[in-house]
Specification:
With 337 residues, the chain is of the alpha+beta class. Helix content is 26%, strand content 24%. The chain has a nine-stranded mixed sheet. A six-stranded mixed sheet has the order 1-12-11-14-9-5. Residues 115-272 form the JmjC domain.
């Protein structure tokens, strides 16, 4: 029997001034009820779709955005096509005002096409919005993005940055899975993805347990929450999250930041190189490289290179901008040989 997802832990009465490390450096997800209730955008969203739409249009300055458009029969689920050679939607560049106009035109349609504007930088598309709806995250260099659409579903995926997301219009349901549930989520291709990140192939509305039997175990660890305007959710780095927009007009604002130095590349690059250079080695050699990675990466400490004079440690010494540039150039030369 498919287990019901557990509620995500909630904090009530929290204000933006309370956003310290106990929230923003947490390793478990948190729902922050009413965190953004004071925002003018939320006040407009609580008055209804027309008010929320009009509020966004105040900031439109002829910006062009990436939009995902899907036919009626996908029922809002952006996914692959039948043979996974492509996708069940089209990606287009469009004026944000035109997208908002189409969303308004489809609002009374009981079976509308799926319309979704995702991960759009607010300062580019809606200049002035962040000044009127501020959120101080302290020293974190966060990127503020906006997500706009009708009833849509985004398959479970992870993001490398930590993520604080807040609903300003409509409602959204989040279903989260801890990072260690990766084997039970049946992840699709790494190099052909709907929006940049690998996704779970399991349909949460109709999970095919004959095809994906381990998903039963994933659901035993699932957590869920439904957010209304003013509510926010903190999603830690690498947690899988399925996101469903539940109304005919939905707006979400999110902030991404990394707990790592700016010079660091995404670990996905290391994964891809490992697939190229390690995965298909004989088992005994793979085991040796597993130990090498453990020694130099996963269990590295001060003693790893203590026997080498400091100036001679090279990439085994402290990493910084200059060393990172040198190492990146070295890798490019090797890869392009």
């Amino acid at each position: 029997m498919l287990a019901a997802a557990k509620p995500i832990r909630e904090l009530h009465g929290i204000t933006p001034g309370d956003l310290g490390d106990s929230v923003l450096a947490a390793t478990e997800p948190l729902v922050l009820r009413g965190l953004l209730a004071h925002w003018p955008a939320v006040q407009a969203g609580r008055q209804g779709n027309a008010s929320a739409d009009a509020y966004l249009r105040r900031f439109c300055r002829d910006a062009t955005v990436n939009a995902m458009l899907g036919p009626q029969h996908i029922h809002g689920r952006f996914f692959y096509n039948e043979d996974m050679s492509g996708f069940n939607f089209n990606s287009v560049r469009a004026r944000l005002e035109d997208v908002l106009q189409e969303l308004a035109r489809q609002r009374g349609n009981p079976q509308p096409p799926a319309i979704y504007v995702g991960s759009t930088t607010i300062d580019t598309a809606l200049p002035g919005y962040c000044e009127e709806n501020p959120l101080d995250l302290g020293p974190r260099d966060a990127l503020a993005s906006i997500w706009i659409g009708n009833r849509t579903r985004i398959a479970a995926h992870y993001d490398l940055p930590d993520n604080l997301a807040g609903v300003t219009a409509g409602r959204r349901r989040f279903t989260l899975f801890p990072p260690e549930q990766l084997p039970n989520l049946y992840i699709g291709p790494l190099d052909l993805t709907p929006a940049g990140q690998p996704i779970s192939l399991v349909d949460l509305h109709q999970p095919d347990l004959a095809r994906y039997p381990r998903f039963l175990e994933a659901m035993r660890h699932a957590q869920t929450a439904e957010l209304a305007p003013g509510d926010a959710i903190f999603i830690p780095s690498m947690w899988w999250h399925h996101v469903e927009a539940l109304e005919s007009f939905n707006v979400l604002v999110n902030y991404w930041w990394r707990q790592s130095p700016a010079y660091m590349d995404t670990p996905v690059h290391a994964l891809m190189l490992s697939l190229l250079s390690i995965r298909d080695l004989p088992p005994a050699q793979r085991a040796v490289w597993q130990d090498i990675f453990r020694h130099y990466v996963f269990e590295a400490g001060e003693e790893t290179a203590a026997h080498i004079p400091g100036p001679a440690r090279g990439v085994l010494g402290p990493m910084g901008d200059a060393t990172a540039r040198m190492l990146r150039a070295h890798l490019l030369r090797k890869i392009n040989r």
